[in-house]
Write a structure and sequence with these properties.
It is a single chain. 91% of the residues lie in helices and 0% in strands. It is elongated and about 60 Å long. The mean pLDDT is 92. The chain contains three helices and no strands. Helix 2 runs antiparallel to helix 3.
């Protein structure tokens, strides 16, 4: 009972964080700021997948979280390479 209520509050907080981070993604002043917001959205989505796994007991959501983590890591590394090349060209 208490665990379900806590899980619901956590889910609401995570979704609220996703919405606020989405606003930051849209109005961010620079590319790096927008990418940090996208990376934060990935982390929040992983947390939602983990919380869903705890609530439902289905392990498939852990696979989704793992896929999101790998995709987020590769995207962050690719952006770092892109920004480094852009900086050396100028």
């Amino acid at each position: 009972m208490v665990a379900d209520l806590l899980a619901n509050y956590l889910l609401v907080g995570l979704v609220l964080g996703l919405l606020l981070t989405g606003v930051r993604l849209v109005i961010g002043p620079g590319v790096a700021d927008r990418f940090v917001a996208l990376d934060m959205m990935t982390v929040l989505a992983i947390a939602i997948a983990a919380l869903t796994t705890l609530v439902t007991g289905r392990r498939e959501f852990l696979d989704i979280g793992l896929g999101l983590a790998v995709t987020g890591f590769v995207a962050t590394a690719a952006l770092a390479v892109f920004l480094e090349r852009k900086e050396t060209d100028q």
